[in-house]
Each structure stands twice: as structure tokens, then as C-alpha cells.
Design a protein that fits this description.
The chain is of the alpha/beta class. Helices cover about 35% and strands about 20% of the residues. It contains 10 helices and 15 strands. The chain is globular, with a radius of gyration of 20 Å. The structure holds 1,4-dihydronicotinamide adenine dinucleotide, nicotinamide-adenine-dinucleotide and (2R,3S,4s,5R,6S)-2,3,4,5,6-pentahydroxycyclohexanone. Homotetramer.
Length: about 350
């Protein structure tokens, strides 16, 4: 079975995903693209030699009966409308994070999907597919060093574009930790507090950078995440789980050791594109394989998108109030439990 994809948003990650579906993965083909910037849509067709229709907007693309699945890689604020339209048209959807920019928007998607009656949506929370995080989860579940007590994380970008605002440290950047950390320890968040440390001279006036986010989970675990998006030196993702008998640390990306001019150097990555390249490949391959095998995607769900949005909303409130903000979720619908857990 070949899944015929229509892509909405052919910017940075849209092009990355088009490239991997076309040239690396198996079971998928790009048959249509659209972008509010029509030049960007036309360019990808030429760049990757696609046999694909260029549509003027997502509505027109979603009417195409030859499309089985939609890949949404537009800006976060545009995701909800495209995902709802795809569900309405009965098409599978792989949506980049965030699923929607508000918890209410994610809930509208959850409700539409439940009404449809089977899972159609997978959210691009690719860290769950990263071998480092998978190894951490296995070590925690295997009780290798006892019960987790604390987690210390850092999410550092070398720099960001000028449209990046203080709340995007949460909704665009921290959102990856929000998703992967509760999955890692199989726990729920209870409250969050956001601290603004001394500001770097490299951040534009409108941006508070770095930020420190502290969570407590329902079982009493404390989690600290530093988000620093003008760190200058590279793209750096850290995660250390402190347990009762020892610690577990996310592996560094392996790289050549360079010995030169009396120094031992390890080159660092500079942006996100290469850091999780295997995880992006795996998430999309899994999306296609599970649809082909079972008729439904099995990766991160619309409900996971909703959890992330509720948590992100609390974090943004905590940025504004400077106080602890509670995080409360409604019960997970049976629809989103795997059959083995019902
Ligand atoms: P980008 O700005 O490079 O590309 C977005 C593209 O979408 C642009 O070409 C824009 O013209 C187009 N677009 C925006 N609204 C649209 C609409 N309503 N209809 C059609 N096209 C539209 O942005 P980038 O970096 O590719 O990010 C896109 C999405 O991917 C975001 O949701 C972002 O959070 C996510 N992302 C995820 C990453 C990950 O690690 N999973 C990494 C980078 C981005
Ligand atoms: P980008 O700006 O490079 O690309 C976005 C593209 O979407 C642009 O070409 C823009 O013209 C187009 N677009 C915007 N609104 C649109 C609409 N309504 N209809 C059609 N096209 C529209 O951004 P990006 O860095 O590729 O990010 C895109 C999405 O991917 C974001 O949601 C971002 O959070 C996510 N992202 C995820 C990761 C990850 O690690 N998972 C990494 C980067 C970006
Ligand atoms: C971007 O959208 C991503 O998703 C990257 O993984 C993240 O590191 C970056 O801060 C975001 O802007």
C-alpha cells in the first residue's frame, strides 16, 4: 500500500519531511502540496522532482480524493483548521507540533476524531521515537537505579528568528519536553512555575531568554527545564534523571573526536534538523506502517496534543503571574487507550 500525501506548509520542516518520504522512507508518496506562500510550494515540487499538484490553499487540497493522508507543517496557528478539515474529509493526518495553539482547539480536534470513530491523527512529538529517550525509559521501567526523584533538562537553540516571542519558549520549544517527560516517567503534571533569570545580551528586546521552568508531577517528582534559545554555541538537548541509587543521562550525539592544535574537540550540531533525524524518520515510517497494517496510526495521539496544550497554557500563565499555576486534565476518554489497556 502506498499512502498518498498532501502537504500543507512547505517551509523548513515541511521540506525535510517531503525529502524523507520521497527519498528515505518506504510506503509514501507526495501527490499534492500547498503553502500560503505559493512560491514555496512551487519550489519544493521542482527541488524534489515531485509529481504533485500545487493547490492554492488547504481547503482545495483537502477536497482531492487522491489524497489518503495530510501532513500539516504550517505555522502552529494554522494547524487546527487544517486538521479539522482533514478529519471532516476522512483523511489521516500527521500534524507537526503544536496540534493547536489552545487547549480548546485541541479538544475540538479530539471531539471530531472521536465522532469520526477511529484514530486518524498523529502528532509530531518525535522525541518518543529517539533512541536516547527510549533507552532512558527502558532504564527507568527496568528499575536500573531505583525510583526517579528529579529530572534536570536543558533545551538550547543557538539562535531564533525575530518573530520568536517569550511565550514561544513554551509553545514552540518547551512543548517537546512537556510531551516527552510525562511519557518518560508515566506520570502527570501537577503544577508549574516559570522563573526569568538574568537576560542574555543576545536576545532581542521583546524576548525573555533564558527561562527556567519547574514542574511537580502527581507522584511528587520535581522537573527543571532550562530553555535558552540564544545560547550561541549550538543545538543542545540535555536530560538527566536523578534516581534513588544513581542517575540516568540522555546520551550525547556521537561525533568525531578531533585532535588539533593541542586540543581535543567534538563538533556540536547547530540546529534541530540533524539532532532528531532518526526520530523524524521513525515517526513517519511508523505512521505509514501502522496505517497500512491496522488502518490507524499508533504514534502520539490528539489526546497527547491536548495534554501538551493544557500544560503549555499553564506554563504561559505562570510566565505572566510569576506564581505556581496548577495543571488539571479531564479524564482520558476510553477512545485513546490502546485496546490492551481498556
Ligand atoms: P516555516 O516557517 O519554515 O514553514 C512553515 C510554512 O508553512 C511556511 O512555508 C508558510 O508559508 C506555510 N504556512 C503557514 N501557514 C500556512 C497555511 N495556513 N497554509 C499553508 N501553508 C502555510 O516553519 P517550520 O520551522 O517548518 O515549522 C513548521 C511547523 O513545524 C511548526 O508547527 C513547528 O512547530 C514545527 N516544527 C517542528 C519541529 C520538530 O522538531 N518537530 C522542528 C521545526 C518545526
Ligand atoms: P517555516 O516557517 O519554515 O514553515 C512554515 C511554512 O508554512 C511556511 O512556508 C509558511 O508559508 C507555511 N504556512 C503557514 N501558514 C500556512 C497556512 N495556513 N497554509 C499553508 N501554509 C502555511 O516553519 P517550520 O520551522 O517548518 O515549522 C513548521 C511547523 O513545524 C511548526 O508547527 C513547528 O512548530 C514545527 N516544527 C517542528 C519541529 C520538530 O522538531 N518537531 C522542528 C521545527 C518545526
Ligand atoms: C522548533 O519549532 C522545534 O520544534 C525545535 O525542535 C526546537 O528546538 C525549536 O526551539 C523550535 O523553534
Amino acid at each position: 500500500m502506498t499512502i498518498r500525501f498532501g502537504v500543507i506548509g512547505t517551509g523548513a520542516i515541511g521540506r525535510e519531511h517531503i525529502d524523507r518520504i520521497t527519498n528515505t522512507l518506504s510506503g509514501g508518496r507526495i501527490v499534492a502540496v500547498t503553502d500560503v506562500n505559493q512560491d514555496a510550494a512551487n519550489q519544493v515540487v521542482n527541488q524534489f522532482g515531485l509529481d504533485a499538484v500545487v493547490y492554492p490553499d488547504d481547503k482545495a487540497l483537502l477536497e482531492d480524493k487522491n489524497i489518503d493522508a495530510v501532513l500539516v507543517a504550517s505555522w502552529g496557528s494554522a494547524h487546527e483548521a487544517s486538521v479539522l478539515g482533514a478529519i471532516e474529509a476522512g483523511k489521516y493526518v500527521f500534524c507537526e507540533k503544536p496540534l493547536a495553539t489552545t487547549a480548546e482547539g485541541c479538544m475540538r480536534i479530539v471531539e471530531a476524531e472521536m465522532k469520526h470513530g477511529k484514530r486518524l491523527v498523529q502528532v509530531g512529538f518525535m522525541r518518543r521515537y529517539d533512541s536516547g529517550y527510549v533507552q532512558l525509559k527502558e532504564a527507568i521501567e527496568g528499575n536500573v537505579v531505583g525510583e526517579p526523584l528529579m529530572i534536570h533538562c536543558a533545551h538550547r537553540n543557538a539562535d531564533v528568528h525575530e518573530r520568536y516571542t517569550t511565550d514561544m519558549a513554551i509553545t514552540d520549544t518547551l512543548i517537546h519536553e512537556i510531551d516527552v517527560l510525562h511519557w518518560l516517567v508515566n506520570d502527570d503534571y501537577k503544577w508549574v512555575e516559570v522563573i526569568f533569570p538574568k537576560k542574555t545580551k543576545h536576545a532581542l528586546d521583546h524576548l525573555q531568554d533564558p527561562q527556567m521552568i519547574i514542574f511537580e508531577t502527581k507522584t511528587g517528582l520535581h522537573i527543571s527545564v532550562e530553555v535558552f534559545v540564544n545560547c550561541k554555541f549550538g543545538y543542545d538537548i540535555q536530560c538527566e534523571v536523578v534516581c534513588e541509587e544513581g542517575t540516568l543521562k540522555l546520551p550525547e550525539v556521537p561525533n568525531v573526536l578531533v585532535k588539533k592544535e593541542a586540543q581535543l574537540r567534538v563538533p556540536l550540531l547547530m540546529d534541530w534538523k540533524l539532532r532528531f533525524i532518526d526520530a523524524y524518520d521513525k515517526e513517519l515510517q511508523d505512521f505509514m506502517d501502522s496505517i497500512a497494517r491496522t488502518g490507524q496510526p499508533q504514534g502520539p495521539t490528539a489526546w497527547d496534543g491536548y495534554i501538551a496544550a493544557v500544560t503549555a497554557d499553564a506554563c504561559v500563565r505562570a510566565q505572566q503571574t510569576g506564581k505556581r499555576e496548577s495543571i488539571s486534565l479531564i479524564d482520558k476518554p476510553a477512545f485513546y487507550y490502546p485496546p490492551s489497556e481498556i
